[in-house]
Design brief:
This protein is an alpha/beta fold and about 600 residues long. Helix content is about 50%, strand content about 15%. α3 links the parallel β2 and β3.
Length: about 600
């Protein structure tokens, strides 16, 4: 451990209690404490084969494996459930395989064919489950709902979700889910949603070798995971679960706030209240946001959180650029700066502001796909070099048209039929008429996406669109494609600032964290306000402010949610007088940057 263990940590490491719930505040070293407990047991003569550690993501599992580096069983809940099903099948001379998406769709089709009552009920609601498109939507709905009735109801109850049409049909869909799972089982297949349920059932027929069971991040458990944990705890002599109920933020994905002591059949709660990550000043803000028992104890003095009010969303983006520039100038490494927001749409606008100001930023939610950008830049160059000729398309000969078509195919390394290529040429001619560099860049993007979709059949182009959209705003500043290409290349050579949704940031930490959009309607999100349930949003805000080791920067600005056409102006209700008192209030005027680069 980086620090000498506290009395609280020592008590957990050396406990003789049968069942323990460790309630750990953010940054209190719970994973380190878990690993120290494992090492303590090994030093006492416990064999590695007697220890089982479960967590909720591959990322967390990989961290634990790196820290322990021993032949201890460390697994996600789902992977462990699958292993139990495989062991049971193997003992019966059978084999279980994970269903491919195609196999799952075929099984769902067969289940729909057998469940005529569900099909008829859906038809009365205007939902035709016989069509391929509707079956695909239903399949995604069932996958997202993990076969869990309450989660399915929650997903369907969201009027803005693609599943809202299923709201009056959820109860009727449950027999269909049962039929689908039965058909999977008969065919020796298993899907992600069935791993936990079938794993728990298989556990009743197996005797496990584990004496010690550990669970990391218990607050993220779904109902199915809690039932599997309960069954496992009855087969092990010692159970310790680690987590922070203040960070239970995945209710939308099936997470259920459990009475964890009851899940374990009676357990003793042991706290970890000292945060090694947070300063006293940041801890004071965290306590003001979350309240409750076991207040966070900081680890030394530091900088007070800052709270800035911006007049507009654009001035907020400029303020973020100013903060980033100030931190980098002051010697803070770019990879120790993170910008967190409630939605990906907010982050995309912030990213464009940073790029325009010459700062590289990496969104945690989307991968960089530079090959696509290079191809669009080459199309952009083709438009720029031949703009005069392309705008006079009526004067182009058949040979000249064919030459432009061949150039497009050579640039993109995509091959399509003549009809599609002619449509691409029309896009090219139209793009040449664009009066600005950004107009030609956007035309090159549209052409490339059309060509990519036509050549590959790839309908979901979200990641590619995100990659190409990064450079849309900055393209206006460059009159030549070579200048834009050089700018992008130089930018990507920088160490990037991190952009992340608050949900995706859980478990990570940085020196400086900028939380954008601390505004009612954004944090808490407008949908949860309308439902009258903002407590998970409060916990989400707590997660955001507790990611910072040195200082957290809060920015409030008017928030417009384009999909719902709603605008919000007031500061977040979580910025209570106590929370404001913990911050240095620092309103700033908007900053404006203009200019064009040759």
């Amino acid at each position: 451990m980086k620090y000498l263990p506290t009395h609280e940590q020592i008590a957990i490491i050396e406990t003789h209690l049968r069942a323990v719930v460790v309630s750990a505040v953010a940054g209190s070293g719970k994973t380190e404490t878990l690993c120290a407990r494992v090492r303590y047991l090994l030093a006492q003569g416990v064999g590695p084969h007697e220890i089982l550690i479960l967590s909720f993501s591959n990322k967390a599992v990989n961290v634990l494996r790196r820290k322990l580096r021993r032949s201890i069983k460390i697994s996600t809940f789902h992977a462990f459930g699958k292993s139990l099903v495989e062991q049971q099948a193997s003992s019966n001379g059978k084999k279980i395989e994970i269903a491919t998406p195609k196999e799952s769709m075929l099984v769902l089709h067969a289940a729909i064919a057998k469940e005529t009552a569900v099909r008829d009920q859906a038809k009365e609601l205007g939902i035709n489950l016989r069509t391929k498109v509707e079956r695909q939507r239903l399949f995604k709905f069932l996958c997202d709902g993990q076969g869990n009735a309450s989660l399915l109801r929650s997903l369907a109850a969201d009027a803005e979700s693609p599943y809202s049409a299923y709201a009056p049909l959820v109860d009727q869909l449950l027999p269909l889910v049962k039929r689908y799972n039965e058909l999977l089982r008969v065919q020796g297949l298993i899907d992600y949603g069935a791993m936990l349920r079938r794993g728990r059932l298989a556990l009743a027929h197996q005797l496990l070798p584990y004496t010690y069971l550990f669970v990391d991040e218990y607050q993220d458990m779904s109902g199915a995971q809690a039932r599997l944990l309960s069954a496992l705890s009855r087969q092990t002599e010692n159970v310790i679960v680690f987590g922070d109920p203040r960070q239970a933020i995945f209710g939308f994905a099936g997470g259920v706030r459990q009475n964890i002591e009851n899940v374990l059949g009676g357990a003793t709660t042991m706290p970890l209240t000292r945060s090694f990550r947070l300063t006293h000043q940041t801890a004071a803000l965290a306590n003001a946001v979350i309240g409750g028992r076991n207040a966070v104890i900081g680890n030394g003095n530091g900088m007070r959180p800052s709270l800035t009010t911006s007049a507009t969303a654009v001035s907020m983006e400029n303020e973020i650029v100013t903060i980033v520039e100030g931190l980098k100038t002051g010697g803070v490494a770019a990879n120790e700066i993170a910008i967190l927001a409630r939605t990906k749409a907010q982050l995309r606008l912030i990213e464009q502001a940073l790029i325009t100001a010459g700062h590289h930023a990496t969104p945690a939610h989307s991968a960089a796909l530079p090959a696509h950008t290079q191809k669009v830049l080459s199309i952009f160059a083709l438009l720029n070099r031949n703009a005069n000729q392309l705008t006079q398309q009526s004067k182009l000969s058949a040979i000249q048209r064919r030459t432009f078509g061949q150039k497009l195919l050579k640039i993109t390394q995509l091959y399509v039929n003549r009809k599609v290529l002619n449509a691409c040429l029309r896009h090219l001619f139209s793009g040449a008429l664009a009066p600005s560099p950004s107009g030609r860049y956007e035309a090159a993007t549209r052409l490339y996406l059309y060509l990519l979709r036509s050549a590959t059949g790839q309908r979901n182009q979200t990641e590619v669109k995100t990659e190409l959209g990064r450079w849309a705003a900055v393209s206006e500043k460059f009159r030549t494609s070579n200048a834009l290409r050089a700018f992008i290349s130089k930018l990507r050579a920088q160490v990037p600032v991190t952009l992340s949704t608050i949900h995706a940031a859980k478990g990570d930490e940085w020196d400086h964290v900028i939380v954008a959009g601390v505004t009612d309607g954004s944090i808490p999100f407008y949908r949860e306000i309308s439902r009258g349930d903002v407590e998970e949003e409060r916990r989400l805000f707590y997660v955001a402010v507790t990611r910072a080791r040195t200082q957290v920067h809060l920015i409030h600005a008017p928030f417009h949610h384009a999909p719902s056409r709603q605008s919000f102006d007031g500061p977040s209700r979580f910025l209570t007088p106590t929370a404001r008192k913990a911050c240095e209030v620092n309103p700033r005027p908007p900053h404006v940057s203009t200019g064009c680069i040759e």
